[in-house]
Amino acid sequence: MLAEAGGSSSRRPFDTVAALALAGGKRRRSKDGTSYRNDAQVEALATLAQAGMDMRRLNPQRTGSFGNTASASRRQLSSLAQVQLEIETIRIGLVNRNRNDVASPRLNEDASHTKNYSFLWQRTEISNTLKSNDGSLEKFRYDRHTWTDEILTLLKEALRSDCNIVSFGEFDYPIDLSKDEKAAFEKNVQQEVNKVDRGVFAVIGTAHVLESARTDEWTGPVAQNVAKVVISDNLLEGKQKAIRDVKKRTPASKAGELLTGLHGIDMEVFNTPLGKLAVVICSDAYDPSIVLEFFARSTSGDSKRDIIIIPSYNTSIKLTYMCQLLSLVSESVVILVDACSFCSNNTVFDKSDAWIYGISVSALSEGELARHGVCRWVETKAVENSSIKILEVSLPKLRDFITYMGKLDPMPMFSKVRTLLARP
To answer: Which CATH number fits the domain that encloses residue 165?
Structure first.
């Protein structure tokens, strides 16, 4: 069934596991059964990774070169590879607005609680999404004009620090904009990223979108959490779109979020001269099928991600553990921008952080990252109540470090699984 779902693989991943489970006697085992267990674990993990890849299958029409044909995709990949060789250092701006303005869904009907928050939850029969809170105190009340001005100001500050990649947090994209206001805001963002002479990839936050949809696959109301990506013109070729949407796939149900509609099975890869980039929204990092898909794709040069950006509005330190794990299994740089300043259960953690191959870059004074000179924190800018952390990454040294860590083989089982997944 997995081979059918994948559409290309003829392997039958259950065969070895089944044979081991039935103890057919053809495979030699150590006295304590270690070899038996290790082989079974490797095959089981490979099966799970293949399942994750099949569930989140990459769609070439929406990924890679953003092109519509295979030949165009190949030309684009070749062209971008040439440009990428000329880019040696990039800067990543982690824009954190240090917010705590979303009411608890459990106290959504308690006016004494919600009056201190800018946003509350809007429950319907099919969804639970955020909306602006008209009943909040004046000092907490959401104002869309002030909000858009703040986003543009922070974006400009990040670009002044020569950032190539800029990310805001979850729910940072302004809501309640009219159609004309939304178009004007996005045009202003486009103008800012195009003013600089370097390529810029900006994630300007996410927002809940409620609308009616009618397609061949779905008819009815849709509630989605959508990240808005803006790409500068000098990173685009042909008819590629400068503004792209990335949809959240896994609602943060414990936080009260409920989404509906089709979110797509494909995991999008933005193939740019800055590297192959992906956007994963908050609780998507908890989704086993997504994590396993990243793991499975770490064996493929065309679809392996170099940098994974995670905008979040989160109170739990558990997300940082998942970011670290995702960085390890995908052999990538993972960037977390957690817009919520509050930490639950008295566990304080860095709300703007990064990991490379599972290693945190919070402390760069020692360890392998420091020895290889992969990256450095350039500065932290304070802009009113917000902060912008600037991380500088050497792309050649990053590639060398990933290769070096792969040879160290810190997790032999992962290495064996990757070998299995790479087979035709």
So the answer is: 3.60.110.10
